[in-house]
Amino acid sequence: MTNTSHTLGGKVYADASSALAGVVNDDMSVMAGGFGLCGIPENLIAALRDSGVRGLTVISNNAGVDEFGLGLLLKTRQIRKMISSYVGENKEFERQYLQGELQIEFNPQGTLAERIRAGGAGIYGFYTRTGAGTLVAEGKESRVVNGDTYILETGLTADLAIIKAWKGDAEGNLVYRKTARNFNPMMASAGRVTVAEVEELVPVGTFDPDHIHTPGIFVQRIFQGSDYRKAIEQRTVRKRSGHAVDA
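^ thats the sequence. predicted structure below, dont judge the formating
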């Protein structure tokens, strides 16, 4: 990392590289927010790649796509293990997994979200019927309640959470936009250190307190990002006949 300036004081940093300075190291665990390619911390992922850290365990709903999102870290072989729900859009992910180069811990999507929420709330674990009787249940504690089998899922935390919000202020209060509220808010509370990138940094007092999605107490560092691609995973168009096809 070349830029370690901390220009605005408090929690505000100049850019992604300076916001990550001193908080990244090899073999750490990282939560990366967003859903698909929506609401992902684009600047922070690129800065994490440029930092050169390796052996990462990344907790994310998905693994990005080739050449974008977490696909950047897969391409450079900086990820050792993924804890995810959906990974079907990344050919490099598939190749590494089939070659035994990448470890995967699959989770049903709702289970993954609840594991992260539980970790942020200080809850050790919870019992769920989801996955009972399947490969998901292998090696996990189970119990029968009212005739139904439940499996124990443990909460998740991470050394670092990198998240993306629409707007934020210098205290770290965040507001998300639409689909970006998937995974980002709960990851903010489950990271030992949370770094947020926002599209717009606004003055403290701008937000109605009732409209804040993530209170600043969960955010240690914040910066205003730039050059957002906001890519689309699967772009489709509709033929005149009414049948949708890939573009």
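The longest strand covers residues 158-169.
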